[in-house]
Structures are given as C-alpha cells and as structure tokens.
Amino acid sequence: MSGLPIDFDLAWRSLPELLAGLQVTVLITVLPLLFGLALAFPICFARMSARRWLSLPAELFVVFFRGAPLLILLYVVYYGFGQIALLREGPLWLLFGSPFGCAIVALTFNHAAYMTEVLRGSLLAVPGGIVEASEALGISRRHIFIWVKMPLAIRYGLKAYQNEVVSFVKGTAIVSVVTITDLTAVANGIFEQTYDPFTPILCAAALYWAFINLLRIGFELWGRWLGRHQREEASPLTAEAPRRFGLRRLSSLAKAML
Amino acid sequence: MTNLSPADIAGYLRQLGEGALVTLELFLTSFAAAFVLGVLIGVITLSKNRFVRAAWRVYASIFMGVPSLLVIFLVYYGGSAMLSAVFGEFGAAIDISPFGAGVAAFAAVYAAYIAELVRGAIDNLPKGQFEGARALAIPPAVMWGKVILPQAMRLALPGLVNVWSFMLKETPLVSLAGLQDLVASAKIAAGATKEPFLFFIATALVFIAFSALTLKLATVLEIRLDRGIRRTPARASAGAEA
C-alpha cells in the first residue's frame, strides 16, 4: 500500500460514473427544493391562520415531517404506499410506482415541513408597524404580502434557508436505500467491485463538498445582493469584501444548522 | 385492518424495544463523544496559532460539507485499514462494528458543529472574565472548568439543543451499515407482517416523542442555567414563554 490511501488511477476511471451519480443527486435535490418550497407557502398560511381547524392540521404536518427521521419517511412512502391497492390502480401510481417518485415525495414533504417553520419565523420577524403603515396607505393585502412582507422576510430568513438547504443536500445521501443510483450509491457500488474502502468514498465526499460549497457561495452572493443597500453606507468595508471570500468565511457560514 | 395475533405483536414489540435500546445507546454515546470532543476542539482552536486555526478551518469545512452517511461508510469500510496504518499489527486485529463506526463518525461530524458553537459562545463572553480569572491567579484548568465553560454553555445551549435533535434524526443512518437498531427492526417487522404503515409510523412517533420529551428537559435546563442572569421571577418568564 502506498502512503496515500487514494488510488488515483481508479479515481480517474470512476470519475464519469461518479459525475453521473452527482447529476442524480443534484436532480433529487433541486426537484424537492422547488416542490417543497411551493408546498410550504399554503401550509405556512394555514399554520399562521387564527382558525384552529386550519392551523392544527398544518401544525401536525410540521411536527410529523420535521420530527421523523428522513430514512423512516422514505421507508413509509416507498414500502407503505405500495401497499395501498387504491393507489396502485390510480394515476398516482406513476409517482409512487418508481423509487425516484417515492424519494421525491418523501424529500418534498420533509423539506416543506422545515420550510414552513423557516417561512413562519421570517414572516413573524417582519415588524408589525411596517404592515400597519402599508394598510394605512390603503395597499391591498396581496400587495402588502408580495411587496412589503416577503422582501423583508427573505432577508430575515436567508440564513435559516441556507442552513436548511445545506443539510437537505446532505440528507439526500440516503436515497440510495431505495435503489436510486445517486452519488452515494455509485461510490458504494465501486467499493463493492474493488474493495477499495477509501478512493470511491473520498471522491464522492469531495464532489458533495464541492456541491455544498457552491451552494454556500451562491447563498453568500444572494445575501450580499439583498443587503447591497446596507453595504453602501459602510464604505470602508467594501474594499475588504473580496478578501473575505476564503475558506474561513465559508466555514463560518455553517454556524447553526437549523 | 391488521391481521396480527397478540402473540405476534408482543414478539415484534420485544424486537422493536431491543432495537430502540440500541438506537438510544448509539445516540447517547455518540452525543457524549461529540460533546467532549467538540468542547476540546473548540477550546484548543481558540489559540492564536495560525496552523491550529488553519487546521480547524479545514476540519470544519470538510465535516460540515459532507453527508454523515458517507463518513459512516468511510469509517465502517476503511476503519480497519486506518487503524492498522496507525497502530500497525495490533490495530489490524480490531474489527470495526457498525456501532463503533457510527459513534466514531457522529463524533467526528458533530464535534465540528459543537466546537463551532463553543467557539462562538466563548467569543461572546466579556473579556473581563478572562482578565479577572488571570488577575485572581486562577490556574487555567480551573478557569476553564469553573469560570469560562459554565458561562459559555449557557450561551451555547440553544445551539446544542439543535445539534441534539438533528443528530437524533441521523442516528437511523447507522442501520444502513448493518446495525440492528430501531429502524432496522421496524423494517424487518414491516416486511414480515406486510404492515409497513403500522411499524414505520410507530417508529417515527417514538423519535418524535423522544425528541419532544428531551426538548422539554432542555427548557428546564435553560431556565436553570439562566438563573444567575434573570431579573424577573422564574414563574413569570416561564409563563411568558409558554
């Protein structure tokens, strides 16, 4: 055995396979992120409603899908929904009949539950006076929400959103248990063929790391763009800004997970 | 709906109970290991030494940017090779169990998060605490143990509670390395009885109940740790929170 545990030849040969796995991982990240976010809005409105019959189910949804481990959610959807005869004949079988559809459903519900709480926290952080002022100006409720509350809520909730997205990407590693060949599954497969315990897993880890840090940089840029009005006031800091883009900056971004 | 006999149910319940104990044991061991390691790393990396800080940044970036599942697999598959590289012949004789791999992986991953929290908490303490301890000639070990860390823990508690509940939800991952824990037992029971909803949802509810119970305890702990800071009576602030 050489000094380094990595077999570069094997790493190079398995790179196309690993990149194909990364594609699946990206797909299985992006779709639930979109669906989950879309689902989070109505659930959040129900959760914040004063009517108990609306807010209670939403609360239960959040408690269940946030509190249950993702692996169990995946098992429930994958093994559970297949048992329902009614579903087997219905058009929804297109979704629940494939492992990919099941994983999307489980991940979407999980993400929606987390995003409901992120969204609720951000909306509650919007100062009441601003909303009252908008109402006093006769702005319609819909416009207040779109043009007053949401722009502020996005700024308050961006950090929490980023943490949720990053931990969500790491969570997608489990979809390999329902036979989806994502990055983790590809690395596992190469291990089983070669019995090299380091090369495939370390290569997959490097790809995950790159993907996650790309997301972090994206969020960092988005946050800077959203906060551009504040930066102009503190001009001495702007000269420093490009230098703050190092590893330290990225690792400090991961301060809190939830 | 169900066609299970009471004897069957009792049998599966016993199996699930055993699995739950394994899960609990794994979780508590991993959290304790991650906590001790995290506090140590957090305190050590506050050093001004550039190399220590650079090493911390690399460590935190890696373990915060990689799924825990991969770390578990790496330790489980590669653990023996790593041990034999470090300890030679003696290390090669040690067999890595899924339990050991899980504890090692979670300790390595979550120590990074806990160290980050501890560093932040210590940074937020007034500098006078360090200066006062030094002025009173308190030895460093006593300063950390009796002055700095108790205050830092109060500040770090909300973050630690987050790590606690997040880690709890990741413990089932070790079943994928072959550990016979609660989720693995539930999967077997679900497959054998063709009652996946019953067993998986019951398992999910066990996790939710445990998490809710410990969050209640965390609130009690928080009130207790805050007792030196709080001005208003305990009852009033507890009532305002609820």
User: What's the CATH H-level homologous superfamily of chain B?
Assistant: MetI-like
Order of helices and strands of chain B: HHHHHHHHHH
Strand content of chain A: under 5%
End-to-end gap of chain B: 39 Å
Helix content of chain B: over 70%
Oligomer: heterodimer
What is the C-alpha radius of gyration of chain B, as a whole number of Å?
Answer: 22 Å
Structural class, judged by helices and strands of chain B? Answer: mainly alpha
Poorly predicted residue ranges of chain A: 237-258
Give the rounded overall mean pLDDT of chain B.
Answer: 88
Largest interface: A-B, 47 and 52 residues
Instruction: Output the CATH class name of chain A.
Output: Mainly Alpha
Shape of chain A: flat
Any idea of the CATH topology of chain B?
Answer: MetI-like fold
Which CATH-level-2 architecture of chain B?
Answer: Orthogonal Bundle
Distance between the termini of chain A: 41 Å
Q: Which CATH-level-2 architecture of chain A?
A: Orthogonal Bundle
Keywords (chain B): Cell inner membrane, Cell membrane, Membrane, Transmembrane, Transmembrane helix, Transport
Transmembrane segments (chain B): 20-46, 58-78, 90-115, 136-157, 197-221
Organism (chain B): Ancylobacter koreensis
Membrane topology (chain B): Multi-pass membrane protein
